[in-house]
Design goal:
By secondary structure, the protein is an alpha/beta fold. 31% of the residues lie in helices and 24% in strands. The strands form five sheets. An eight-stranded mixed β-sheet has the order 7-6-5-3-2-1-20-21. Strands 8-9-10-11-12-19 form a six-stranded mixed β-sheet. Strand 8 and strand 9 form a beta hairpin. Helix 14 runs antiparallel to helix 15. The longest helix is centred in the C-terminal third of the chain and has 20 residues. The structure holds zinc ion (ZN) (2 copies). The site of one zinc ion (ZN) has 5 residues, from loops.
Length: 553
């Protein structure tokens, strides 16, 4: 028999940004670290979410002892509503705020089955099969973020979670450096560390500089101050409240996701507001503008966000006007730059001021830059090192940093999703590959109507619609005649008459081949869409929305 080994298998987040998920396996015990989602790229038309291929875990569900979540960002918790119902009531461990955010997420997706959430304070150890683990606090752009110390039969593994090193954090504890140094002295087998900002030299600035910038803005802005950020950036919301309170501005929270998060964070004690500071939006009327601050979403220029609607004079309560100061307290997620720029333009057009990261220090991000990554490597002094969380260039650069601080090249493994790394206390090697990749989630199945409507509109405005009418004989269940096709906004049907006829023929042939299933709705629905999407794309390079209808005659 071969000696048992520790297997480390990333299922998401290595070679990409988002949908983080990692499996640790030892004999017949598995623990899963994080289960996140990724938002689709612009070209993933029709897709609302992307989650990891979790079949490796689901197929071994009997062995899964627990899921351990580092923090409450979507790219770490977003796949839980899809994973949990497929497992046998597996416990999910997280810190308190993270647990609150997971609960909000599960409720949103109406997930009730297989839910067994457990709050675990940092420093308390839990045993799961042959694994033991505990959380340690790290600094990140969300309170209550944690890294994980995992005790395995082959040695200690440290998972950094998402982290930076901020000596003056706004809320919560800083990254626990002394605990890490202590473990380093004891001996650490493997370090898994966040690579998101491995491209940036130096140190990530402290949140403190954002407090200073906000202080300055609240003091000097002639009218209302409208701050937009991610709703999960609870510490930033705290900074806005603190700065507003200092200059006797009342704070109004606008937008549903922002309101939900603020309420939950207040309840759990992660947000503190002096009495009377937070107001309902109808209380804004009559207040002098220099006594008003608003917090809202829209830092990414999302078309349905409150900020964009305010800028387009399309919001129910607030219209941006001359004298307002808008602060975009977030960096655009790659891919969103043009939306953000357009929003900034339209705010300037309304005569208001805009401050964004290029103009002022109104945002710092939550990930460590090169010097912080080196510090962690130096404190932990791992025998083996795997850079995690990042696209391939981030992982490679992080690997180079590790080499520069003295970790032997042979002990550094740049893995991608699905790679299996096997370790003993002495050696490590990549031993194979398991299934991994993108699993697309269509919003229809999870009730994300806003997103679906928007997506449909985008599709319709781009390539039009094709309606396919298929007649089925009520008695025999057989197809009647050729399908009818009606289009709008797709092609000039006179000019493309031949192509349209051809597509009807093709469809009739395809459905005929379906035999007994030909009149089943699910068969027709997918066959019609697949066939026509492909055919029209080949001919026109367009992807109209295809809408099959079945009528019984
Ligand atoms: Zn994060
Ligand atoms: Zn992350």
């Amino acid at each position: 028999m071969t000696k048992p080994r520790l297997k480390v298998i990333p299922l998401g987040g290595l070679g990409e940004i988002g949908k983080n998920m990692m499996v640790l396996e030892y004999e017949d015990d598995i623990i899963v670290i994080d289960a996140g989602l990724m938002f689709p790229e612009e070209d993933m038309l029709g897709i609302d979410l992307v989650i990891p291929d979790m079949s490796y875990v689901v197929e071994r569900r009997e062995n899964v002892r627990g899921i351990v979540i580092t923090h409450g960002h979507e790219d770490h918790i977003g796949a839980l509503p899809y994973l949990l119902p497929q497992l046998n009531n597996v416990p999910v461990y997280s810190t308190k705020l993270t647990e609150g955010l997971i609960r909000v997420k599960l409720k949103e997706r109406r997930t009730r089955d297989g839910v067994n959430l457990k709050v675990l304070p940092t420093g308390e150890e839990v045993t799961l099969g042959k694994f033991g683990f505990e959380f340690f606090p790290v600094c990140h752009s969300i309170p209550d973020a944690a890294g994980i110390i995992i005790y395995t039969p082959e040695g200690i593994v440290i998972h950094s979670g998402d982290f930076k090193i901020d000596y003056t954090p706004v809320s919560g504890k800083g990254t626990d450096l002394s605990r890490l140094a202590q473990l380093g002295a004891q001996g650490v087998l493997l370090l898994l560390s966040d690579s998101t900002y491995a491209e940036l030299p130096g140190y990530t600035p402290s949140e403190q500089i954002v407090s200073e910038a906000l202080d300055h803005i609240m003091a000097n802005a002639p009218g209302r101050v409208i701050v937009t950020t991610f709703s999960s950036l609870v510490s930033r919301i705290q900074q806005v409240i603190d700065a507003a309170a200092k200059y006797e501005r009342r704070v109004f929270v606008v937008g549903r996701s922002m309101t939900d998060t603020v309420r939950m964070a207040l309840e759990l004690g992660y947000l503190n507001a002096p009495d009377g500071i937070l107001g309902r939006i109808d209380e804004m009327r009559g207040l002098p503008h220099d006594k008003i601050a608003l917090v809202t979403t829209g830092s990414q220029g999302e078309p349905t966000s409150a900020l964009v609607r305010m800028a387009n004079r399309d919001h129910r309560h607030v219209h941006i006007q001359r004298g307002d100061t808008i602060v975009l307290s977030a960096t655009p997620v790659p891919g969103n730059e043009s939306l953000v720029n357009r929003t900034v333009d339209s705010i300037f057009k309304q005569g208001a001021q805009v401050l964004y990261d290029k103009l002022g220090r109104v945002h710092v991000h939550g990930h460590g830059s090169q010097e912080e990554l080196k510090l962690l490597l130096n404190l932990v002094k791992p025998k083996f090192f795997v850079p995690i969380h990042g696209e391939y260039r981030h992982l490679s650069l992080h690997a180079q940093l590790a080499e520069s601080v003295g970790i032997p090249k042979d002990n550094i493994f740049v893995l991608e999703d699905g790679d299996v790394l096997e370790l003993t206390s002495q050696a490590a090697k990549v031993s194979g590959k398991v299934g991994s990749g993108h699993v697309y989630v269509d919003g229809l199945s999870v009730g994300d109507v806003g997103g679906v409507v928007l997506r449909n509109r985008r599709m319709l405005s781009k390539d039009g619609i094709v309606v396919v009418i298929i007649a089925v004989n009520r008695q025999t269940g057989k197809l009647v005649g050729r399908p009818d096709i009606v289009t709008r906004g797709f092609v000039d049907t006179r000019e493309f008459k031949d192509m349209m006829n051809e597509s009807r023929e093709l469809l009739a042939r395809t459905l005929d081949h379906g035999g007994a299933r030909a009149a089943e709705w699910s068969f027709i629905n997918t066959k019609v869409k697949d066939t026509l999407e492909k055919f029209y794309y080949e001919r026109t390079k367009r992807r109209p929305m295809i809408l099959p209808f079945m009528v019984k005659v």
